[in-house]
Amino acid sequence: MLKLGVEVAACKKDGDFAKALEFVLSYEKFCCQLAEKIIRKSADIFLIKEAERIQGIFYFKEKNTLLCCLPKKNKKIAKSLSDFFCKKSIFALAGKTDYIDFLQKALSLSAKEKRIFFLMRHKKKLCGQSSSPLQNDLVACCKKDASNLMPLHTGFFKEEVLPQGKEIYLPSLLRELEKILERQKMLALKKDGLFVAKVQTNASSKNFTQIGGVYTLPQHRKKGYAEFLTRTITNEICSQEKTPILFVRKENSAALSLYKKCGYKSYGTFCFLYC
């Protein structure tokens, strides 16, 4: 007998993860990080189901960022989400803008800060890049480089991630960087023994790889470092038969111009809401 109404249930079996991945792939370019977590069979993936059919998916850990795929929106889904989260603490929401607008209303959340990004997708052709002397300064980073990469990682976090009124806790940031270096690809430029610019992948799902963390130390800007790194990692992703995507803040005109120059095009908006 089919269950009536809408329920939220954790993914537990291989079959649950297979169904979750099949569902989310239709919305993959906006849900690359969520799809990667499903592929990794994270213990924190939840299904929104009605009559045993998946209506939405989200990733959630207490006091962490909630990632969501919510293409279907109605009062019953809103009520089930409100009931599930009534006594839970959420740090932030991240997802396609209409998903976050629905979720914010369903959970009656006040936004401490709301950031809107353009999703940019590459044409999936090799990104023209002639030979460059910067190739000699290029480093494929690994975990042992974490401490030396911290000035770049900290600078990026301060400028692009840190919520207003919050302070950086360096040990936590270092642990985060080490996890990135273990699981993702990071390329950096090294000048006179110091890392001066970087780029990384943030997630890789079935068809897409998301890049991010593009950052150059202020004293080394306007030298073409970000463009070189963006083109290099874009070409690596394209050679793996995946489509590169990235998110850029709407007001960051310099970054928008750079990514368009590298062959990226806007495909809608993504929202990050600090609760």
Word description of this protein:
The chain is an alpha+beta fold and 275 residues long. It has 8 helices and 12 strands. A 12-stranded mixed beta sheet has the order 1-2-3-4-5-12-6-11-10-9-8-7, sandwiched between helices. A hairpin with a 3-residue loop joins β9 (194-204) and β10 (208-216). The relative contact order is 0.17.
Features:
8 helices, 12-stranded mixed sheet, 275 residues, alpha+beta, 12 strands, Aminopeptidase
User: What's the total count of β strands?
Assistant: 12
| Helix/strand order, N-terminal first | EHHEEEHEHEEHHEEEHEHE
Report the principal-axis shape: globular
The radius of gyration is 19 Å
How many domains make up the 3D coordinates? 2
The helicity comes to 25-40%
Major sheet strand order = 1-2-3-4-5-12-6-11-10-9-8-7
**Top CATH class of the largest domain:** Alpha Beta
The CATH architecture classification of the largest domain is 3-Layer(aba) Sandwich
Tally of individual helices? 8
CATH level 4 superfamily of the largest domain: Gcn5-related N-acetyltransferase (GNAT)
Low-confidence stretches: none
Strand content: 25-35%
Main sheet summary:
12 strands, mixed
